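Exam revision sheet. Question 4 asks you to relate a sequence to its structure. Input first:
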Amino acid sequence: MEMTKQKNRSIYHWAILVCCILILMFSYSTRVGLAQLFATEILKETGFSSGAYFLSTTLTSVACAISGPIAGKLLRGKYMRTTFVLCSIGTMGSYACYGLCHSLWQFYIVGTLVGVFAMGCGTLLVSVLITNWFEKNRGLMISIAMMGISIGGTVLSPLLSWLIVEFGWRNAYFILSALSLIVLVPIGLFVVRRTPQDAGLEPYGHGEESMASAKKKNVPASNWNATLKEARQTPILWMFALGAFLIYFTACIMQHQSYYLQGVGFDAAAVASYISLYSVVAIIGKLVLGRIFDRFGPKIGILFGSGTFLLFLVGFLFVQGSPMMLYFAAVMYGFGTCTATVAIPIMTTSVFGAKNYSELYGFISAFTMAGSAIGSSAIGFLYDLTGSYRPALTVLAILTALTIVIMFVCINMGQKHVPEASTNA
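Answer key, structure tokens:
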């Protein structure tokens, strides 16, 4: 009994968790959460239209959508660490090349290259690691890992703002990319292991979660363990993919926030404070959302996450000239932005099981990246067409409400399917 406890509760489990936080800080937050700080400076210097410039983000997402299923298969096998290291070098090396770009076509090529490698060293990798290494409180552990995105925004946003002011946005790209590689490559080479079994251990809480789950009727069963082929034959996967698509589509407002806020009268310092505030709130928000999923199930989790995101959009519509509304929007966004990074990984496991997680999540990632691809450009072009972000914010609010309905339907379908599958087994 003591030997089992040592194997499913070791310091190595926590080392993996810390590494997951660092991975998201330096492979995801740097190129996604902080991108809006670069965007403002690039648009000012180059004079590109918003829609044309953000097409580079669309191409990144398209490349991610194509490479996601491939990355899912590679991360499932023995080449996980090699995939992680090579993708880290490819992603951040390509990201640094933004500093060399002068024309739109150059931004498009670099954005595509970033997307080719990004899926192998970001949220997909971290979700696979947490799923493999943790059984007990998996929702909470995913939330803690995803805090890396928020911590990255909180810690690196002031640093990046300073780098841009002191050295210019081009050199800031070089410095940020180099710093990221210094962190990511050693983690991939010396610390990360695909499964606890590779280190002679068992998943955290192995054998404990099944007993705890039996006492919590509100926690959905996860014993289906569907293969991708099986899931494709059910409407559950397609409904889930649609909901995930919409969550990421609406989340694309992140890349436009800085430009929008400066356009309605807030200076650079106020925007940086806004980003720091929602990043701090998001640290707490991820823990809260993960705990809600663990304790109350996916319906309440989605309602909380998407509901707060809807309140953020409403607040953003009326933010002009109101610092208090800016703070309200920051707090709501801090909670609501956690939906994309926390809810989808947790729900993938709870609906389809953990056995074939990387392959299923890789497939779903194609839809989330498609949402990012279409959303970012759609918001930019709608702004160019109307001269205002208000129409886009209104559309996003409607789609967020629709997302809640779709995910509720998906959850109901999944809950009906799982007992049926278990019975047939």
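Marking note for examiners. The two ends are 30 Å apart (CA to CA).
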